[in-house]
Amino acid sequence: MSSHSASVPRSASKTIPAAIALLCLSLHAQAQTQAAADQATATPAAAKPQPAAKAVAAQAGTTTAEAPQQGPIATVNVVSERSSNRVDRQVYDIKNDASTAGASIGDVLNNVPSVNVDPNGTVRLRGSERVTVLIDGKPTAQLQGENRAAAMNALPAENYESVQVINNPGAEFGNEAGGGPILNLISRRYTKPGGNGTVAGTVAPGGRGTAFANGSYSAGYASVNGSLNLRRDGNDTDTEQLRERIDPATGAISRLRNEAHREGVNTFVQAGLGGRYNYNERDTVTGSVSINKRGNDSDANEHFTDFRTSQSPVVDYLTRRRTDGDALNHELVAGFEHRFAADGETLKVDLRRSSNTNTADTSTLYQALAMPAAGAPSLRDYAQDVETRVRITDLSTDFTGKAGPGYLTAGGRWQRTQQTADNRYVFLSGAGGLDTRRSNLFDLDQDVVAVYSSYEMPINKTWSFKSGLRVERTDQDLDQVTSGIQAKNQYTSYLPSLFLTYKLDANSNLRLSYADRISRPGSAELNPFVNYANDYYVSSGNPRLHAVKLHSLELGYETKIMGLAPASVRGYLRRESDVITERRVFLDANTLLTTRENLGDRRSGGIEFSLMGMTLPSMRVMGHALPSIRFMFNGNWGFIEQDRVGALGLTGDKRSSPSLQLQGGGQWMINPENTLSVFGFRQGKLLSGEGYREPFGMMTLAYEHKFDKRLSLSVRANDLLNSTGQKFRVETDTLRDRTNTEVHQRRVYVGLRYTFGGVTGNDAVRNAMQAAGVDVNSPGAREAMRRAQEMERAQSQPQPQPRPQAPAQKQEK
């Protein structure tokens, strides 16, 4: 969460609406005499923001309210679109997306090009799971390790205004929380002067629903903001798994079937408070605190049928699991920024402390249906108490300033991560007591010290570059307390990056980038204790794992169709060495061990294409005007090739598979009060470890009705086609495994939203455009709207206010 103070001159409230009115009237007159194609490339002089603003500023008392010929004010929606691109990232605006109402951040990320979040909360970017998820450029404990998947399905999308996709991160970014490419979630920023806020809520079947409230107050040199979120949601699942063990000596096949039904609707509560204070003209301090709590309650029924090598069941039994628990997350943030006299020269210091404590208390009861006289598994009821703790302390400092013809950015960082996994299993039947096969305590302490430097400058009018180097020192201490196994990992990583930009014309660029990254193993991947889930499935980590090395190259072409709609094509290649690969090995005829090893290489590449915010022109059918439809479309065709793993390790063969991911949607503004949006995606086949995941997709429908400029109704239909089922396949020399999971998340969310405080920014611009009778979806109107918004943002930027008692400031006044 972040906050910015804002101070707007008294005349701004008059100047901006009047300037917008002139923009609208000029555009309206132009629309009567010019074709739509001309509007896309030309704007009359009176519609240019700066001259209009100057002309209106001379009229002291003029406002839009004083123009009686404007008529009533109406509002329209704007679909989410890419706001801007930078040399090393793409930025996508999500705060105005109608599908955001009541949605989780995982739901909304499925609208971002080449990003996919499956129903389990697993995040993939261009098919890769080694993705770092940051909030405002920094890591947080709730998005670490096994906590991340649940958090992605719980964190409300209302808290964020944009998403930065960073496929080739530069030197300023660390390698925590997964390494590889980065998804950076940017929190909503509260910059409007005075008091502003929003309250919203949704309801859905099965007791599901959300409630959201935020508010901010900004005046002078200080601002404060707060938010409160409540979410009760979750998905039921049905899973069917068929496992076949192939005897390497005889070729005989043993079959095991597992059927499971899981129900879990949990509550998520989040509250936060933040503020900003301009201590003087050059120094600003910021701070925030947030806390959230997520439930872990669930019920699951399982049915195990072991056929061994026969056609009829040899072992047949049921289990019933009940889980209670929660995940508690805290985060404290403090920041300081000093602006030097030189233009653009700043020093920033950021200190963060975040923690996550995750508890789950599970009771498991067995019911035998058919058991053999000998060789039967031990069916003893038990209770399992699991507590995982993550603590992150992060201190960073960054300096940016002019250096010769370009800008130098340099900084340092120290990060300490402490993780603990405490698993206790107690038998409830028989003689009772502690189950030593599964009870264990594991600690991981990790310190990372990093320094970096990058330099960015224009070479000439068409070429510019940015290059950097990051050096990281990693120290890991592992302690498997139960087994008495201790280990240390120490290594230094040198990570270069390079970005080149060639400007083809005013709207088009070519970009070439290269970056090296590492992906460190997590706590669960390092814990060597063998954990017996049951007599058929056990798992363990590997303390000898080391970081995966990633090398990434990308060439992209970016342009704007008609000067307005962003479009891009990117080709990319990535190579991962010492890949952390899941290994599945049978310990005996029935027990399958899943562990991890650094095995082989993985190569991937593809072509990514994107068209954002394109508006189809209005048409007339049988004499009636049809409203314009705005749409976006993007896709990613890629391939993955990796070394094949056999029973004894690498086989020397390769596995490869092409994959096509498509995303698209449109927004139909039926009239200024009603908007209908539809969005869908399809994720192609993906290789993973020793197997692959089959394609799946989802379609979402959203409708918004505005009662007035403050109150609106939203309806969101999730997973219309009931097509988000997950199908995983594993094929090795000794194992064939087929797992099908049906996710029940097709439902409708209905909600209301009310906004209070001043109406500024996008709403003011759109209202004035509509009042002037201008088609707000025409290319010329959208270009004028963009320019007007830029002028308004420039006047509403945070301005440090001099203190009345400061002598130096009085003298300046």
Question: What is shown here, in short?
Answer:
Helix content is 11%, strand content 57%. The protein is mainly β and 813 residues long. A hairpin with a 5-residue loop joins β20 and β21 (433-434).
Verbal overview:
The two termini are 34 Å apart. This protein has a 22-stranded antiparallel beta barrel. The chain has a five-stranded mixed sheet with strand order 1-2-6-7-5, with no helix packed on it. A four-stranded mixed sheet has the order 26-27-31-30, with no helix packed on it. By secondary structure, the protein is mostly beta strands. 11% of the residues lie in helices and 57% in strands. Mean pLDDT is 81; it is low at 1-83, 759-763 and 796-813. The chain is built from nine helices and 44 strands. It comes from Massilia norwichensis. It is found in: Cell outer membrane. Belongs to the TonB-dependent receptor family.
Distinctive features:
disordered N terminus, mainly beta, 22-stranded antiparallel beta barrel, Plug_dom, 9 helices, five-stranded mixed sheet
Please describe the topology of this protein.
Elements: H1 12-33, H2 36-41, H3 49-57, E1 82-86, E2 89-93, H4 105-109, E3 115-117, E4 123-125, E5 132-135, H5 147-152, E6 160-166, E7 182-187, E8 194-204, E9 208-219, E10 222-233, E11 236-246, E12 253-263, E13 266-278, E14 283-295, E15 298-308, E16 315-324, E17 326-339, E18 346-370, E19 382-403, E20 406-427, E21 433-434, E22 440-458, E23 463-480, E24 485-505, E25 508-519, H6 523-526, E26 531-532, E27 537-539, E28 548-561, E29 565-577, E30 580-586, E31 592-598, E32 601-616, E33 619-621, E34 624-626, E35 629-646, E36 649-671, E37 674-683, E38 686-688, E39 691-693, E40 696-706, E41 711-718, E42 726-731, E43 735-744, E44 747-757, H7 761-771, H8 779-795, H9 807-812
Parallel strand pairs: 5-7, 27-31
Antiparallel strand pairs: 1-2, 2-6, 3-4, 6-7, 8-9, 8-44, 9-10, 10-13, 11-12, 11-43, 12-15, 13-14, 14-17, 15-16, 16-18, 17-18, 18-19, 19-20, 20-21, 20-22, 22-23, 23-24, 24-25, 25-28, 26-27, 28-29, 29-32, 30-31, 32-35, 33-34, 35-36, 36-37, 37-40, 38-39, 39-42, 40-41, 41-44, 42-43
